[in-house]
Amino acid sequence: MRIIKFHPIEYEPAPKKTISMLAVVAYVLSVAGPTVFIPWSIAINIFINSNSPGPQDTTGYAFLPFYLAPFGLILGIIALRRIQKSQEPIRGKNYAYAGIIIGAIITVGLFILQACMVWLRSEGAII
Question: Using CA atoms, how far apart are residues 100 and 94, in angstroms rounded to an integer?
Fold first, then answer.
């Protein structure tokens, strides 16, 4: 009968990865701006219109939540650059990509919406 000896394998534990908070903030600004704050902007429009005797121009308040998306886009780009240049492993690349993509889509949509608003005002369709 032969005896087999097992030698323990020595290994170093994997380094702990930290998550990039900048990437998380970029994702939250890109997603939460339009989804969370739209009811808030609607409430502001109702409040302003209910407290004024005449017609009020409140279209600026309606677009207020969408102004967070460009910040998410910019922060996502900054976070992605920092993650790629970092010497230590940092998680959060997917959050940064999501912040960039969602922020870009919403920012382009914002510019298109505002261009339509300017065009409709010039045509006299909106007061």
Answer: 10
Sign of CA dihedral 74, 80, 83, 86: negative
Q: pLDDT in tens for each of the 127 residues of the chain?
A: 677 777 777 777 777 778 899 999 999 988 887 776 666 666 666 666 565 555 555 555 566 667 788 899 999 999 999 999 988 888 999 999 999 999 999 888 878 877 887 888 788 776 5
Distance CA(61)–CA(94), nearest Å, equals 31
Give how far the C-alpha of residue 122 lies from the chain's centroid of Cα atoms, to the nearest Å: 32
pTM across the whole model: 0.68
